[in-house]
Amino acid sequence: MGSLLQVTDVSKHFGGFTALAGVSLDIAQGERFGLIGPNGSGKTTLINCISGALRNDAGRIVFQGKEISRLPAYRRTRLGIARSFQIPRPFHSMSVLENLLVPLQYVAHGKEDEVFAILKKIGLADKAQALSSQLSQVELRKLELARAMAARPRLLISDEAMAGLSGAEVDEVLKILFDLNAEGITIIMIEHIMHAVMRFSQRVVCLDAGKIICEGTPASIVQNADVQRAYLGA
């Protein structure tokens, strides 16, 4: 597998606070990549820099061989980077179908029939005409993923897609992510539900205080003493 995303010595500061301190990652095409760390470790700042919500102060971000560090978020989306948000942000006055038409038409320039294919894939086909305000918590999480999929991503950043869900609902979302990855979509999973990250990821990185403290397979990560101290509180 070739490299899809390269993050090299990326730093980000907020006043005198260092949120990221020289973080480097290399994510392969088609990889299932887990990003973990305690609150305040820099996970959200890192994915905001990758997606374009924030601009890194130093370092380089390269996607499909193209330097994107100074590109606005909408141009990164059009290149193939999409994300779901920890707190779902649908247009509550719109139907599920209409929520998907916005990114599909304005980012991917797609057609309405693509919406139904995405909804079927995500498991919301029977909710196409429902208002997003009428959806359950797990349905809202699925809608977030569907909205990201409407942008036809090559890289999907799943930000806490399973937060607050039951065990069975976590399994539903995991199945969707596995299916999307099987179609060739590279996925970065940011998640506090450790068993979900470990089931899904081929490789995991743990951040703490803006630095990578460990990188490896799920089996090696859970045995790492630094990870246990920083993330598990051991």
Question: How would you describe this structure to a colleague?
Answer:
- The mean pLDDT is 89.
- The protein starts with a strand and ends with a helix.
- Helix 3 crosses helix 4.
- It has a six-stranded mixed sheet, sandwiched between helices.
- The chain is globular and about 50 Å long.
- With 234 residues, it is α/β, with parallel strands linked by helices.
- Strand 7, helix 6 and strand 8 form a beta-alpha-beta unit.
- It is built from nine helices and ten strands.
Write a short abstract of this structure.
The protein has 234 residues and is an alpha/beta fold. The chain contains 9 helices and 10 strands. The strands form 2 sheets. It has a 6-stranded mixed beta sheet with strand order 6-7-8-3-9-10, sandwiched between helices. A 4-stranded antiparallel beta sheet has the order 2-1-4-5, with helices on one face.
Order of helices and strands: EEEHEEHEHHHEHEHEEHH
Calculate the terminal CA-CA distance, rounded to whole Å.
Answer: 36 Å
Low-pLDDT ranges: none
Describe the biggest sheet?
Answer: 6 strands, mixed
Q: Give the number of helices.
A: 9
- Gross geometry: globular
Helix content: 25-40%
Structural category:
alpha/beta
Total DSSP E strands: 10
The largest beta-sheet arranges its strands as 6-7-8-3-9-10
Strand content: 25-35%
Keywords:
234 residues, alpha/beta, 6-stranded mixed beta sheet, 4-stranded antiparallel beta sheet, 10 strands, 27% strand
Topology:
Elements: E1 3-14, E2 17-28, E3 32-36, H1 43-51, E4 58-63, E5 66-67, H2 73-79, E6 81-84, H3 96-106, H4 112-122, H5 137-149, E7 155-159, H6 167-182, E8 186-190, H7 194-200, E9 203-208, E10 211-216, H8 218-223, H9 225-232
Parallel strand pairs: 3-8, 3-9, 6-7, 7-8
Antiparallel strand pairs: 1-2, 1-4, 4-5, 9-10
